[in-house]
Specification:
With 30 residues, the protein is mainly alpha-helical. It has one helix and no strands.
Length: 30
């Protein structure tokens, strides 16, 4: 069990969703 601070968690989610959105956009473009 890893305890993340709120800031770390927010950054993690931002990174995750930005990658996910980028992948989706690339799939749409190609």
């Amino acid at each position: 069990y890893v305890s993340l601070s709120r800031i770390e968690w927010t950054i993690l989610m931002k990174e995750y969703f930005s990658h996910k959105m980028t992948n989706m956009l690339e799939q749409v473009i190609w």
